[in-house]
Structures are given as C-alpha cells and as structure tokens.
Amino acid sequence: MAKNYVSVSGISTPEQLEEIGKFCGKEKFGFPIAIGFQVSNKSINQGTKNPRQPKIGDLRKLNELTLNYNLIPSFHYYTKDNKTIIGDLEKLASLSGTIRESSLFQLNTLPPDTKTLEQIKQLGFKTILKVPVSNKTHGGYAVWKGHETHDFHFGEVAALVEIVRERKDFTDYVIFDPSHGTSLPLDLAKESLGIRFGKEISKSFPYLGLVYAGGIGSENAGEIIKTLSGYFPKGFSIDTESKVRETVKVCGTTTFDELNIDLVKNYLVNVREALSKP
Predict the structure, then answer these.
(1) Residue 215: how many CB atoms within 10 A of its CB?
(2) Which helix H or strand E contains 115, and what residues bound it?
(3) Out of 60, 151, 165, 239, which could bridge 97 as a Cys pair, Cβ 3.0 to 4.6 Å?
(4) What is the pLDDT of residue 216?
C-alpha cells in the first residue's frame, strides 16, 4: 500500500532546499515530506527554466540534499507529447543520480500508455498518475483544455476511474489536481467530482495512494485536512505549490514568481497541527 506524504513543490535552488531541510530536521515532523522539483521536456533537453524549475545542472545536488535530509525526492514532469517521456526520464535519472525506492515521478501529462508506465517502474520510481481534470476556462497548459480532459465542474467519474483501472498495475499514486499551478481551489463538497472520484478510487483500488492538490496553502491546510479526513479516514497525501509563492516586483515593472520559505514553514507547521487532531 502506498505511503501517505505531505509535499512542497516548486523548489528550485539548493539554498531553498537547505533552509527547508534544516527546518524539517529541527521540527522533527512526524510525517513523510516530499520535495517536488518541476522539470519538463524543454528544461531537460534545452536547459531552459522558469522560477519554479531548478537548473538542470543542480538536479544531482538537489536530489542528494533531499535524501540527506531524509526527505522524499519527487520529480514533477511535463510534456506536450507523451512519446518523449521515457527518453527524458532516462536523462533525468542520469542527471539526478541516486534513485531510491521512495523516489517519486509525477506525470503532469495526459495519461500515458501502460508500456510507458511499466518502463518508468523499471527505472526505479514510484509513479504518480495525474488524472485529466481541469477548469477549461481558467488558464493552465493547453494540453489540459483538450477533449480528453474532464472539466472539474462536470466531468465523468466513471471515465476517470477507468483511466486508473487500465493503469493500476504500474501506478502507485493517483493525483486529483484541477489547478495545474494556477492556485485554483479544490471543490471538496460531498458531491463534487474530486470527492466522488476519491471515494471510487479508495473503494476499487485501496492500495493506491490518493493525492490532492490545488490552492492548498498555510492558511487553509488545516481545514482541507479536516475535510479530507472525513471522507478518507485511511489517509491521503496533499501537495502545495502556488500558495507558498509570492510575486516580487523589481524596478516597479518586472515581476518574479518566488518561493516564500516562511510560507513553506507555516504550511508544514499547520499541517502537523491538523494531523495531530483526532
């Protein structure tokens, strides 16, 4: 059965990771913490990066630091063409060094075929499969607006569950994330697509980890954990990214999307407080 974790994504520099790692060591959180590194077909092959992506040359150091701090490395990979996945992942494995049994590979792509998923497992990663849900009228990558994607307001649960069923033998976690880095909040009402989907996964595939992401941050982590605990008493994982970042203006015009370490710390402390409550 997959082990639940709490994730912080969008870490891009060794300095950020050092501060988070030292804080986690000091606080001794009683739950597994994953550190998400954003990579893409473009960044792996062309060396490009945005503020949420590390430099490719830093991946080995970041991976080693994550393991040294007893945190879980999680590589969040995006591509427009699923045919690039294996070639890029082989390069990523070479660039990042040690692949532990706990290392995660999150597919921020349309669901790949089972052959691709089997190859990912053979490379030593635990796989996080993102089901294709989105708010089609609200930003995000173009791939999440196509006909294969279900709008999180009115998508079909049966179709999403079938996507998982076809790939369950080579999947460790399933993530429901309609936001795709846009801070779109989760709809966790009883009859929402996200909750109905989670209930079906928990019932049909109880050995798969269930992950939720989208608009989760320090200010609402406690309430989200309380809500999800009511639906999924056996546990779940959560991920934050956009809500621990801030926009910084330079010279009054240029803006940068920066990780805010204080928000990361507050998020982890609030998660611990929520998880400690009965």
Answers:
(1) 19
(2) helix 114-122
(3) 60
(4) 97
Contacts 24+ apart (CB under 8 A), 15-21: 16/259, 16/261, 17/62, 17/65, 17/66, 17/69, 18/65, 19/261, 20/69, 20/71, 20/261, 20/264, 20/265, 21/65, 21/66, 21/68, 21/69, 21/71
Residue at token pair 């062309």: 46
226 contact partners, CB below 8 Å, separation of at least 6? 274, 277
φ and ψ at residue 178, rounded to 5 degrees: -80, -5
Per-residue HEC secondary structure of 137-175 comes to: CCCCCHHHHCCCCEECCCCCHHHHHHHHHHHHHHCCEEE
Alpha-carbon gap, residue 103 to 258, rounded angstroms? 25
Are the CB atoms for 116 and 167 separated by under 8 Å?
no
CA distance 75 to 275: 25
pLDDT at residue 228, rounded to an integer: 98
pLDDT at 101: 87
Using CA atoms, how far residue 141 sits from 54, 78, 110, 179, in Å, is 19, 10, 11, 10
- Given this model, what pLDDT does residue 252 score? 66
Report all structural domains of the chain as residue ranges with CATH numbers, in order of start: 6-276 (3.20.20.70)
Walking along the chain (278 residues) 10 residues at a time, the average pLDDT comes out as 94 97 97 97 91 94 97 96 96 92 94 97 95 83 85 94 98 95 90 97 97 96 96 96 86 78 98 92
Please list, in sequence order, all residues whose beta carbon lies within 8 angstroms of the beta carbon of residue 45, skipping any fewer than 6 positions away: 88, 91
